[in-house]
Amino acid sequence: MSAVHPIEVLEKRLRDLLERYESELSDAAVHVTEKFSREIGRLIDQFGPEELEINLRYYPLTIFPRNLHEAFGPVSALRWQDEE
Predict the structure, then answer these.
(1) Distance (Å, rounded) from C-alpha 80 to C-alpha 68?
(2) Which residues lie closer than 8 Å to 56 by C-beta, 6 or more apart?
(3) Confidence class of residue 43 from pLDDT cuts 50, 70 and 90?
(4) Contact at 8 Å (CB) between 67 and 17?
């Protein structure tokens, strides 16, 4: 039987999780951005910096979750409860 924690404990733990998650995600994004910087350099050489700058904004990144629920929906508490 699991213990019930006060909401303040849950909030603190979720805030901590969010901070650590965002930090790791930020580090990963920097790594991936650096990985593709050569390709961006080639595009600048081919099309010029102004043209690339104008067009980059039309390609939004859609992979990042907007909140922890989106990030961890596949392993949410409701799914854990279903498995019991």
Answers:
(1) 16
(2) none
(3) very high
(4) no
